[in-house]
Write a structure and sequence with these properties.
The structure is a homodimer.
Chain A: E1 2-6, H1 14-28, E2 32-37, H2 39-48, E3 57-60, H3 61-69, E4 77-82, H4 85-97, E5 101-106, H5 111-121, E6 126-129, H6 137-144
């Protein structure tokens, strides 16, 4: 099984921590974890996980979308890390190209409004949200309520 | 050998990644790595490193200062993560109580001014700075220029 983490621009402090937290849970379930993002988002994750304890590999977002469109790359589940509209666009693009299930992790001050936009834009998307900016605990709680990510694949 | 990471409030996105990056280098050199901070700073690091791949243990900042003052706890080197004045205060307090060497990691939009303030406030403090907010690469470069942290102890 393979999971994709679609990282947004790293503007909101909780993103790095929450992405590593989810990656750890996925690895424990046997997923290969691939992170996709802009070069700056990828750089920040590489610096944060130098031993690849949590994230197995990285792919530049444009290349990821191209390869999915050509049928050369796919995943079982895609996590969109969303704190502004562009994050919804990334997840919607990947959801349209991938056979995997989409999951939206929505955070930042506009999380409530953005989570409603995600639900309108994407059918069958599990949406977890909290207005977290610096404190990850509420979002962590939402994540911990999902006992097994493999169950998301069967929705 | 034991190293202390003094985490500031997690307001600037690069802090989590840079702290984990330094922790990894310290562990590779044989340091035990302890992170100190406010409860919210500690929570964010715990979420980011759930397997303790990089950080061995945590201590609440007030308790850390109390125990250092009572001579019950000390470290060989203390890293202050500084993006505002309160970060300088933390490092200066710890430097006054500890026999270990202080190192200042200064980032954020006011990094240049803050790094000058650190140099004035703390003698013999190694100061590494970059105006990093989201992109950690310049600060990573400064960190990589220090070949071994154990060398800092002998200053």
């Amino acid at each position: 099984m393979r999971a994709l983490l679609l990282l947004g621009c790293p503007e909101v402090p909780v993103q790095t921590g929450i992405a590593l937290y989810i990656a750890n849970k996925l690895k424990d379930e046997g997923f290969e974890v691939v992170a996709a993002g802009t070069p700056s988002a990828i750089n920040l994750m590489r610096v944060a996980d130098p031993k690849k304890a949590y994230i197995d590999s990285y792919i530049e977002i444009e290349r990821c979308v191209d390869q999915m469109g050509e049928g050369k790359f796919d995943v079982d589940v895609s996590f969109g890390f969303i704190h502004k509209d562009s994050g919804i666009q990334y997840l919607a693009t990947v959801a349209a190209l991938s056979n995997g299930a989409p999951v939206a992790i929505v955070f930042g001050r506009e999380a409530k409004e953005l989570s409603n936009e995600v639900k309108e834009a994407l059918d069958n998307c599990l949406v977890l949200w909290a207005t977290a900016v610096h404190n990850p605990m509420e979002l962590k709680k939402r994540i911990d309520e999902v006992a097994r990510w493999a169950s998301v694949l069967k929705r």
